Amino acid sequence: MTYQAILRYLENCLDSYLADLQSLVAIDSGSQYKAGVDAVNDRLTGLLVQTGFTVSRYPQPEAGDNLLAKLKGRGQGRILLVGHTDTVYPVGTAARRPMTIQGDKVLGPGTCDMKAGLLSGIYAVRALQAVGFDGFGEIAYLAVSDEETDPRFSTDLIRAASREADAVLVLEAARENGDIVSARKGVRWYTIEVFGKAAHAGVEPEKGRSAVLALAGLVTTIDRLNGLRPGVTLNTGYIHGGGDYPSIVADYAKARVDLRGFSRQDMDEAEAALRQLLADPPVPGVQVKITLEESSAFPPMERTPETAALEAAACAVARELGFTLRSTATGGASDACLASAEGIPTLDGLGPVGGLDHSPDEYIRLSSIAPRTALLAGLIIRMTAEGERWKDGRPD
């Protein structure tokens, strides 16, 4: 009965939700546009304070500020809701493409990734208040400003806030087919530099050691490491070598490689294979250096037994709300990876259903807003009202 009451409340709040979403989407908040990200923070702060949260703001000189809001309850269980305020769009996009509703789609820059999710976190708490539920210990709400960019400044804050929670619920959108996310690949970026020896390409090429030729051979060999373990991928997405003159045997070349995998063990094995490959370059006499770009690294969000139990709890709530819920694993990283790496049960994709992120066609499903926000509220009830018992659950 409580879950249905929550759903009815949210259905009745849909116009208010859409008005709030429109006000957020109307603000350009690309990662590099601090003024815009902070304007989103101002708007969220107002909504959070209206909902009863105490809001702390963490200033950042080189990016938008971070917000950490907390709401005390009368029960047990500490839940952390996580989202990000930055988008990928340049200044002026919001004016050129304001939020519109076309049938069941709510379109606009940042609707899916992830201003709707940020709003759903607040409305889920309001729904709990509307039905008189305060049986949680604390609900924390973390909105960071630099999920879409590198380097990041919020990693330590995400990790610290996660360690204080019993479970972390990430407000990224559900997949286009409605799936939530129970596992994400980790990401490691590497810079590979090849140092050769320059020479005149016409007069004495034999005295040169081509860094470009060596790197070309290495790239094709790196590609063969794909599938080394199930789900392991390596992509060479950037190459630069030589200078302005093709008459010089190139003495330097550089590549950047993206490595992904579903477990730390898989990623460690792939990295070891990569380093072994680079130790034997195809051109004699060249030197190869590999550097892990640590600021870009995400640990994998692994599907642990605790995550499976959290997923089972979400599926049970969905059934009571009248729909079937499934989970999936995805190759993209999110802040769920950082929370999960702290050993905290983490579930992602708990915002409305949507897709086509980072494109002019980005959208969320209008019909998904109320039921998915009710799912989030119901999951908070299930996890806190049951204490530790929800961890005994198993996926359907």
Structural commentary:
With 396 residues, the chain is of the alpha/beta class. The chain contains 11 helices and 16 strands. The chain folds into 2 domains: 2-184 and 300-392, Aminopeptidase (3-Layer(aba) Sandwich); 186-296, Alpha-Beta Plaits, CATH 3.30.70.360. The chain has helices at 2-12, 14-25, 34-51, 93-96, 111-130, 155-163, 211-223, 264-278, 305-321, 335-341, 369-385, and strands at residues 54-58, 66-72, 76-84, 100-102, 105-107, 136-144, 167-170, 180-184, 186-195, 233-241, 252-261, 287-292, 327-330, 346-347, 354-355, 363-365. The strands form 4 sheets. It has a 6-stranded mixed sheet with strand order 1-2-6-3-7-14, sandwiched between helices. The chain has a 4-stranded antiparallel sheet with strand order 4-5-16-15. A 4-stranded antiparallel sheet has the order 10-11-9-12, covered by helices on one side.
Write the layout of secondary structure elements.
Layout: H1 2-12, H2 14-25, H3 34-51, E1 54-58, E2 66-72, E3 76-84, H4 93-96, E4 100-102, E5 105-107, H5 111-130, E6 136-144, H6 155-163, E7 167-170, E8 180-184, E9 186-195, H7 211-223, E10 233-241, E11 252-261, H8 264-278, E12 287-292, H9 305-321, E13 327-330, H10 335-341, E14 346-347, E15 354-355, E16 363-365, H11 369-385
Parallel strand pairs: 3-6, 3-7, 7-14, 8-13
Antiparallel strand pairs: 1-2, 2-6, 4-5, 5-16, 9-11, 9-12, 10-11, 15-16
Net shape: elongated
The biggest sheet amounts to: 6 strands, mixed
What is the domain tally? 2
Q: Which structural class fits the helix and strand makeup?
A: alpha/beta
First CA to last CA: what distance? 22 Å
Q: SSE order in H/E notation?
A: HHHEEEHEEHEHEEEHEEHEHEHEEEH
CATH class category name of the largest domain: Alpha Beta
Q: Percent of residues in helical segments?
A: 25-40%
Q: From the alpha-carbon coordinates, what is the Rg to the nearest angstrom?
A: 24 Å
Oligomer: single chain
